[in-house]
């Protein structure tokens, strides 16, 4: 079970260093969900209209519009405050990931996230928590061969170049397995896309300076509140089958959303989905699950959970 975390910075925030402290702490907390590898993508805010493919196995690369740093092991081993904190303080968007490998060798940095995936236009930079049927996804959307060995790459190849909720939802409905996703179009680095498909948790919070954050565990926001100067105005767990597009200006706000029916496999119903959750948080989230189950040869059923109306 991987960990997602990130920051969409408000243009009017009076204390940018507070949000940076929160982001770094979220990365430390996300180690509980994976320590095979970890990484961050820090955006400059510069839009890229065309770009050459980004080497997937680079440990630290500055590409047009963002810097991607990743490595094997825990977030605390990869994060370098002396090299990255000044950039983080001014980055309008920061995307983080900690990996628990399910597909693709944990030793290969090409499988570490965030991933820069080419596609129409300049492509996307993205991270995924979960495990999906990548082969079926590649066949359905006639995707090119991947550069690494992860299912995540297949998901983001399918999403690259899709900019409207209808076409994005087409991909999200096609996912079979666990998935929570975050991605940024390099051509529009002032916007963040978040999606929760089946099971893999994703929470979103807004602080009192209007910065927006996301994380794989709602408890992490309570830890941030207790250990930094950040105070949250709201924090919610996204329901399964939710897609959001969030713009940064004039203040972070939802500009597009969609609901879809997510699909899981029987083997995906694993308590480790809620690794690190308090029992109360786990039970609240479990009570709202609404995916359908995929059973090869017999179609879908609800698996005892309510489906979307």
TrEMBL record:
Record key words, sorted: Transferase
Ranges where the Glutamine amidotransferase type-2 domain occurs: 2-249
Gene3D superfamilies: Glutamine Phosphoribosylpyrophosphate, subunit 1, domain 1 (3.60.20.10)
Record carries keyword Transmembrane: no
Molecular function terms, GO-annotated: transferase activity
Family matches, as Pfam families: GATase_6
PROSITE patterns for the chain: GATASE_TYPE_2
Taxonomic superkingdom: Bacteria
Protein name: Glutamine phosphoribosylpyrophosphate amidotransferase
Native source organism of the sequence: Thermomonospora cellulosilytica
């Amino acid at each position: 079970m991987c960990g997602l975390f990130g920051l969409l910075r408000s243009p009017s925030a009076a204390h940018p260093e507070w949000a940076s402290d929160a982001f770094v702490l979220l990365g430390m907390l996300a180690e509980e969900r994976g320590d095979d590898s970890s990484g961050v993508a820090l955006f400059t805010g510069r839009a890229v209209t065309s770009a050459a493919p980004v080497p997937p196995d680079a440990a630290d690369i500055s590409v047009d519009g963002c810097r991607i740093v990743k490595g094997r092991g825990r977030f605390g081993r990869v994060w370098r405050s002396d090299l990255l904190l000044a950039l983080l303080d001014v980055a309008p968007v920061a995307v983080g990931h900690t990996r628990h490998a399910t597909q693709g060798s944990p030793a290969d940095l090409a499988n570490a996230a965030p991933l820069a995936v080419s596609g129409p236009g300049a492509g996307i930079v993205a991270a995924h928590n979960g495990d999906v049927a990548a082969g079926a996804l590649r066949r359905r959307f006639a995707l090119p061969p991947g550069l690494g060995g992860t299912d995540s790459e297949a998901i983001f190849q399918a999403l690259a170049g899709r900019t409207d909720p209808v076409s994005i939802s087409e991909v999200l409905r096609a996912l079979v397995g666990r998935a929570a996703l975050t991605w940024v179009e390099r051509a529009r680095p002032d916007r963040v896309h978040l999606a929760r498909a089946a099971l893999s948790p994703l929470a979103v919070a807004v602080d009192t300076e209007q910065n927006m954050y996301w994380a794989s565990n709602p408890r992490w926001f309570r830890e941030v509140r207790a250990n930094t100067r950040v105070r949250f105005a709201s924090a919610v767990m996204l329901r399964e089958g939710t897609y959001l597009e969030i713009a940064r200006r004039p203040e972070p706000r939802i500009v597009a959303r969609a609901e879809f029916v997510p699909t899981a496999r029987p083997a995906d119903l694993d308590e480790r989905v809620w690794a690190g959750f308090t029992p109360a948080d786990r039970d609240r989230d479990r009570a709202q699950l609404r995916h359908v189950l995929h059973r090869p040869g017999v179609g879908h059923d609800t698996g005892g959970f309510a489906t979307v109306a």
